[in-house]
Amino acid sequence: MERYIIKANKIIARDQLEVMENSGLLIENGKIQKIYDNISQVEIPEQTNVIDYGDKVIIPGMIDCHNHLALDARLENHLVKMEDCEAEQTIRAIKTMKDDLAAGVTTSRCLGDRFYIDVTCKKAQKEGRIAGPKLVVSGIGMRSSHGHGYVGMPHCGAEDFRRTSRENIARGVDFLKVFMTKVINATPFIYHFLIGVCETPQAA
Fold first, then answer.
1. Do 39 and 114 belong together in one domain?
2. Average predicted confidence (pLDDT) for the chain
3. What is the CA radius of gyration of the chain?
4. In this protein, which residues make up the domain named Amidohydrolase-related (predicted)?
5. How does residue 184 score in pLDDT terms, banded at 50, 70 and 90?
6. Do 103 and 37 lie in a common domain?
7. CA–CA separation, 29 vs 112, rounded Å?
8. What residues form DSSP beta bridges with 108?
9. Is pLDDT above 80 for 66?
């Protein structure tokens, strides 16, 4: 069994996000098993590695609530790059996951990616084939053909929305994403399209 303790002058932990001083975390097989209030008074178990981060602050993993794995706003012409092929977008998505994890993000909520890249990456991360946060995914984002949402795919008519909703569910998404924000001078979103999307999971 792999066991180690990480400690620091300050750790933010527990439900109330307490600031704990001179504390530590016991990790066994990759999971936090115990939080020590005062690590200096703890008898360290045998065969336990201790990692001391000194005056650093250890915080819980962060949750990114709005993400598109293949959309990297750091890149020039990043919106145009959403027309890239599936392979290029997948490479970007894997880098996004790696960067997010390095920044302390341990869960990411993906609100639409093309080619079901988010679904593929979720499966690969869960199987340990790529590094990254745990993903909550929506598959293909849906928008009306005249509407907002560059990442989303255009749809015409209620049946078009239903068809993609069914395909998303069949692919194993966690939720459905519809882009509804009104853009200037655009035709208003037709809400019976949305009713079809909402009814689809109930019928699945």
1. no
2. 92
3. 22
4. 57-186
5. low
6. no
7. 33
8. 64, 135
9. yes
| Residue 96 to residues 16, 31, 114, Cα–Cα distance (Å) | 30, 24, 15
Strand runs labelled E in the chain? 3-13, 18-28, 31-36, 49-52, 57-58, 62-67, 105-110, 134-136, 142-144, 153-155
Q: Are 178 and 194 a contacting pair, CB within 8 Å?
A: yes
Say yes or no: 107 and 195 in one domain: yes
Distances in whole angstroms, Cα of residue 32 to Cα of each of 3, 5, 156, 176: 10, 9, 48, 32
How many whole angstroms separate alpha carbon 147 and alpha carbon 152?
Answer: 10
Q: Looking at the structure, do residues 22 and 90 belong to the same domain, yes or no?
A: no
b/e map 179-194, b = 16+ CB within 10 Å: bbeeeeeeeebeeebb
pLDDT at 53 over 80: yes
Q: Helix H segments across 103-187?
A: 117-126, 158-171
Domain count, the chain: 2
Is the pTM higher than 0.90?
Answer: no
CA distance 184 to 53: 51
Full residue range of the structural domain in which residue 27 is found = 3-58
- Are residues 54 and 66 part of one domain? no
